[in-house]
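Researcher: Here's the sequence for the chain we discussed earlier.
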Amino acid sequence: MPDTSATLKIVQSPTIEDANLPVPVHFNGIDQPVLSNYVQAVPGGSSNVISPIITLTGTTPNLNCQGNTRIFEIVLTGNTTYTISNVIKGQIFIIRVQQGTGTAYTNTWFAAVTWITAGAVAPVETTVSNGITTYGFVCRGGAIFDGYLVGTQ
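Model: Thanks. This is the structure I predict for it:
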């Protein structure tokens, strides 16, 4: 007859000294702390942030994801076509697009974006004067991306 007994191993969670985390903190997916006004800073206490907001200009901007660049913003001045460079598999980045005053402009995204939307089509950005639409992207490898509509104002 096969042995059907089970072995139970009890492991104590490690102690984190001087972590200064808000309580309660359980690293089991329950009761995670709520962080507000959070800025991810460079280790060592520097006041520089890991991902600065990069302001794009013109109608053919390049989203250069070199280093820790993950957040972009642009105010449209005409119909805009984006290119991307220095992105690696698994990288996540966002772009905040604001319409200019008056005329509504369109966006043309870099190649190989699979839109995770109804119908798998690129979402239509707001046409409201000075309105804001935010998009998120995940690099799936090479020049292949998943695209998301994060929100529209």
